[in-house]
Amino acid sequence: MARKSPRSRKKRTPASRVPRASRTRATPRTRRAAARARAPSRGAARAAHPAKRTRRSVQAGARALTRRPRPALVRKRPARFAPPDPARIEAILGILDRAHPEAQTALHFQNPLQLLIATILSAQCTDERVNQVTPALFARYPDAAALAGARREDLEAMIRSTGFFRNKTRAIQACCADIVSKHGGEVPRTLEELTALHGVGRKTANVVLGNAFGIPGIVVDTHVSRLTRRLGLTRELDPVKIEFALMPLIPRDRWTVFSHWLILHGRQVCVARKPRCSICPLAPHCPRIGVTAAS
Ligand code: SF4
């Protein structure tokens, strides 16, 4: 007689004795999974019962066969910017020179520090308004040390009418403190040193260099940005990029006056909303790029 193995001799525990917690209960989810496992796959079902060919399915098949492949999306490359013709630039410079012989900065100043402070004040403000404020300001605070050490409330009250007076007061005092601590109270004469001063960007630095020290610099303000684009001298929007785009086009000795010409022309003729193209002497040389309404 064959002997029973220890495993076969082991008593089976009746189901009733299995603790309730360890018994797996059928849930709707497990029931659905079990039904899916029992059901034949879709492929097998299709093989067993091939779909009926309806009129609609035949038409869809025909459409699929005749459908042309969709062309790949081709991104249009912007046309390359053609550098302006030097003869056209020379003609523009000559016309601007004749049209605005009086071109120079409208800000009143007697030394580089006064021009620097007046330029900071001219942000979002007219030059006329700045010129009304600065005589009293410079009489009371004649140098960088005096401005840096002024009572903030007093300075704010004096420049209030130029707008953004709190920010401007902060910028003036921080800039003057830098001038005193790093340059012995004298305004520096290089672009690098000027732009290292608190609150001084390339535009302000170029104004000071060109007008107080006679060192050429292209000042890119809102008028210069607008006019150089309309005239087709650049496509750039960023002031620093515009400045670098103009540098090789304009002779260096005319960088400063070129900015003055464009600022005056932008104020008087090529105004922002409706440029006066009908009376503009630059019209024969201007492609009027981006101009939609002119008078
Ligand atoms: S022609 Fe018109 S767009 Fe061109 S510079 Fe003159 S005013 Fe401006």
From TrEMBL:
Describe the function of this protein: DNA repair enzyme that has both DNA N-glycosylase activity and AP-lyase activity. The DNA N-glycosylase activity releases various damaged pyrimidines from DNA by cleaving the N-glycosidic bond, leaving an AP (apurinic/apyrimidinic) site. The AP-lyase activity cleaves the phosphodiester bond 3' to the AP site by a beta-elimination, leaving a 3'-terminal unsaturated sugar and a product with a terminal 5'-phosphate.
Which gene name does the record give? nth
Q: How is the cofactor bound?
A: Binds 1 [4Fe-4S] cluster.
**Ranges where the record places region Disordered:** 1-71
- Organism of provenance: Eiseniibacteriota bacterium
Q: Output the Gene Ontology terms for molecular function.
A: 4 iron, 4 sulfur cluster binding; class I DNA-(apurinic or apyrimidinic site) endonuclease activity; DNA binding; DNA N-glycosylase activity; metal ion binding
Q: Which GO terms describe its biological process?
A: base-excision repair, AP site formation
Record field: compositional bias (Low complexity):
36-48
Q: Which reaction does it catalyse?
A: 2'-deoxyribonucleotide-(2'-deoxyribose 5'-phosphate)-2'-deoxyribonucleotide-DNA = a 3'-end 2'-deoxyribonucleotide-(2,3-dehydro-2,3-deoxyribose 5'-phosphate)-DNA + a 5'-end 5'-phospho-2'-deoxyribonucleoside-DNA + H(+)
Q: Where does [4Fe-4S] cluster bind?
A: C270, C277, C280, C286
The name under which this protein is listed is Endonuclease III
InterPro entries per record: DNA_glycosylase, Endonuclease3_FeS-loop_motif, Endouclease-III_FeS-bd_BS, HhH-GPD_domain, HhH_base_excis_C, HhH_motif, Nth
